[in-house]
Design brief:
Elements: H1 2-47, E1 77-94, E2 104-120, E3 129-131, E4 137-142, E5 146-147, E6 151-152, E7 158-164, H2 166-173, H3 182-198, H4 201-219, E8 224-229
Parallel strand pairs: 4-8
Antiparallel strand pairs: 1-2, 2-5, 2-6, 2-7, 3-4
């Protein structure tokens, strides 16, 4: 029995050595392939060989579904003016008792958007229009112009820089939307809306609406057209 055990040991050790050698060969091949891949990427970036520029590039595919119509609204208003605005948003969020390098974000964002000023003509009734007997003079009483909600232009808006703490970077790894910038967009829209309120956009919309209505009614034979805003 001892002789049989002694004879079986070399075969087992040989199998173990052979398996270990096979693993070393596969590890060596994988390492060589990895080095070759990295070398090709670096070479393609530095040398720009013909035909190699797009080998490691990225392809963009639009797999979006068709746009769905949610609702239709009839518009009874005349847009007399539109203002284009740009604002630089510097939004910083810090955590208490922690340095910004550990927890906190700071985003520098250039936002471009527009605000439309309009006069609502849907509520005009018989009491809002007065015409003399010979139909040569007309008086219109309209509501003051209003400002629509600011509309950001994604093609002209962009993030200049975004700094994040270590914990925020780790959190982005497990987030479904790591580049969420909704807070920046809301703040940008608020600033643009406030700037539109301080401008003469509504007043200009009223002047342009008055010119439009005067030209329209004079073409119909009215000689005197008066537009007031209440």
């Amino acid at each position: 029995m001892r002789e049989q055990d002694a004879e079986s040991r070399p075969s087992t050790s040989r199998r173990t050595v052979g398996f270990a050698g096979l693993l070393r060969r596969w590890s060596g091949c994988a390492a060589v392939l990895l080095v070759l891949g990295v070398a090709l990427v670096v070479l393609g970036r530095l040398v720009q060989l013909p035909g190699w520029g797009d080998v490691f590039g990225t392809d963009t595919k639009d797999r979006s579904g068709p746009a769905l119509l949610k609702s239709i609204q009839d518009m009874h208003r005349y847009e007399g003016a539109v203002g284009n605005f740009q604002v630089v948003v510097d939004l910083e969020k810090d955590a208490r008792f922690l340095p910004s390098s550990i927890r906190g974000t700071r985003t520098l964002y250039v936002a471009s958007g527009s605000v439309r000023a309009y006069v609502d003509l849907g509520g005009i009734g018989q009491n809002s229009v007065s015409v003399n007997e010979d139909r040569t003079a007309a008086t219109l009483r309209l509501p003051h112009a209003r400002l629509a909600e600011p509309a950001l232009d994604p093609k002209r808006s962009y993030a200049v820089s975004k700094q994040r703490g270590l914990l925020d970077r780790l959190g982005d790894l497990f987030s479904d939307n790591p580049a969420d910038e909704r807070a920046v967009h809301v703040l940008a829209a608020d600033h643009i809306g406030a700037a539109a309120e301080e401008s003469d956009l509504a007043l200009r919309a009223e002047r342009n609406t008055t010119s439009m209505l005067q030209g329209l009614l004079r073409a119909l034979g009215f000689q005197q057209v008066t537009v007031t805003y209440i």
